[in-house]
Amino acid sequence: MIASELLAQAAFIEGKHPQSFPFFGVERRGAPVTAFTRIADAPIPVRTSITEPDIVVVLDASLMRTIRVTAGLKKHGVLLVNSDHPVVGIDKRFEGRTATVDATGIALTQGLGTKSMPIVNTAILGALARVTGIVSLDAVVEAIVKFVPAKIEANAEAAKVAYREVQELQAVIH
Amino acid sequence: MPRMVLSGNYAQSYAAKLARVHVIAAYPITPQTAIVEKLGEFVASGELSAQFIKVESEHSALQACISAAALGARTYTATSSQGLLLMHELLHWASGARAPVVMGVVNRAVAPPWSIFTDHTDTVAQRDTGWIQFYAESNQEVLDTTLMAFRLAEHPDVLLPAMVTEDAFYLSHTVEPVDVPTQDEVDEFLPRRDVRGLIRPGAGVRLGSFTMPDLYEEFRHKIARAMERSAEVFFEIEDDYHRLTGRHHGGPLPTYRVDDADAVLMTMGTATTTARSVVDALRTRGNRVGLAKLRAFRPFPVKEVRQLAATVDRIGVLDRSFTFGAAGAAFTEVAAALYPETHRPALKNFVAGLGGRDLTPKVLEGMFKALLKGDGPEVDWPDLKRRAEVVRHG
Fold first, then answer.
1. B54 and B130 assigned to the same domain
2. For B316-354, what is each residue's pLDDT tens digit?
3. Contact between A21 and B277 using a beta-carbon 8 Å cutoff
4. Are strands B379-380 and A17-23 parallel, antiparallel or unpaired?
5. B196-240 pLDDT tens trace
6. What is the ipTM for the molecules in this complex?
7. For residue A20, is it within any domain?
8. Nearest CA-CA distance, residue B15 and chain A, Å
9. Which residues of B306-328 are buried (b: 16+ CB within 10 A; e: fewer)?
């Protein structure tokens, strides 16, 4: 939720029209939630869930054991996963780009959260900026400085490190 | 005028802060909680000088606001769904006591089955309580309408409570850019409440005392007149707001591309945004369709509905709630408004989007198509899953 809101703020800083919203049923910290962000150059003319995203970001790779995270993802879209190892072969039909970043490791190094509950929102945004270019790293950092209530420097650093360290899998040649 | 990325909930909070409310009393309920949390922060930090009264229930929250309003305070509360239902008794009390309380309501489905998602049953069920009701389409509209609601509620000819509603999650938890007026602008638009509270030191008054049959009816009639008058006052207020901020949301029933339309869909809340895109898409394909947004449900814009109907042959009314044993509430109101007219368009009621079900472009397009074809039942639930199964199983 926080990551999607920060992404919206970063896009807004760059003069875009963002629309970001969460979807959750169980209100419990750590429970799986989905959050959506649309970014456009003009006001966004729909208010519906996103069922065919261009980009899917997975903050907890263990969810991929039970949820098909590429469901609806556009064929040539982008999948970004918080993982310390490459993610391959999760969906044969998906022909887009897959990238991974050890957002958990980066967050813990920066003292964000605990081992059982790392706070990976800001790290993943740095990686997202690098892989998709949908917002700049500068805008992500500015959004963090403006809107993250605590450990601002550590969060900004996490985004920067993730920006540097994100790994993209080589495109599979069919 | 600073532009911020705000949720619908925070748009409510900022509006109440800019209105310089004196008293806030509220009880938390998902998805409303963030509204009063933010107001709590404003009060704690000193950005807003107000009494934040912590209460044990929504019933008490509204009671606190009604009492404070009787002293001349500007009051604000917010709730949703079950919380609003618990308030029901006090909703009547607020209008009867002519307490201009402003309340933010996040439209959330009523249990059971338990749900936290959007649905208009909670506020539609309060239509007979004497509250002015506005439904918002965007977070900008939430903020602007809430500011207007304070002025409308407190207008000496009105003195009625007003609620500004927003769809759960589609607005409450959605962040998007919002122009936030400056404090100076709001102070000019909405001066501090002229403290003419019913209760004043030294003056003996009775509130809510026993009334014999020779007078009760007159009290009710005064509310009826005030509600009618509020429709006129609202136009003046929206014009003033426009002068100050450059924004005008189009009165109680703004329309879109209706002039030469063969069919018009009437929507409330966030379904309007998507429906507008559907209108554009269908127009590109040569279908003459239009849209009307029912922004004020109380007072019901009878005059505007009649004006719209005068030039349109088919009107569909989308209700995100249902009145069991009858039809959608907006639909029955539209039908009632049009009964005396000589030109009566064909009416259809679409009941959809309940309990947070997405009103997708496809579902909305289906409504326009059904209207243009003129087939299907008068009251239709076009997005029922059961129907898909029936089709699949032949």
1. yes
2. 999 999 999 999 999 999 999 999 999 999 999 999 999
3. no
4. unpaired
5. 667 877 878 888 889 999 999 999 999 999 999 999 999 999 999
6. 0.92
7. no
8. 20
9. eebbeebebbbbbbbbbbeeebb
